[in-house]
Design goal:
132 residues, alpha+beta, 2 helices
Length: 132
């Protein structure tokens, strides 16, 4: 469990709820802005979604803007991502017609570092849940 990344930058929060183990709080913060709704969620689907994004970031290839499917605790948001050679450009807003797009740029190295720490935490939680 933990908070990974720097305050005000890119952060991922993983808080396991006992005795549920596979469930808890999974939050992404971009420039201090929380994207999730803070509800209890299953870790594994978010793990898979961000692993896919990490693979794209690791490829080093630019990737045009596409909508991310983050699901569950992020259902109230539309999140798009675009990859440059050095950064991931996130655009996000609520599904409300009147909401404004917010944008955040995250250095790929920062994203990959923070995600690898959070991913290791989730992998440990899921492994312990499988043991019980």
């Amino acid at each position: 469990m933990g908070i990974f990344g720097s305050p005000g930058g890119f952060q991922i929060v993983v808080l396991e709820y006992m005795p549920l183990r596979r469930f808890g709080l999974f939050q992404i913060l971009l420039n201090g802005w929380p994207m999730g709704d803070g509800s209890t969620t299953a870790f594994y689907p978010h793990y898979c979604d961000l692993q896919d994004l990490a693979r794209l970031a690791e490829s080093g290839e630019p990737h045009e803007r596409h909508q991310l499917s983050l699901g569950d605790t992020f259902d109230h948001m539309q999140v798009d991502a675009e990859m440059t050679d050095r950064a991931i450009l996130f655009s996000f807003r609520s599904h409300d017609e009147n909401s404004q797009w917010r944008e955040a740029q995250v250095d790929k190295r920062e994203f990959l570092t923070v995600w690898s720490q959070a991913a290791a935490c989730i992998e440990t939680i899921l492994a312990q849940a499988n043991e019980s």
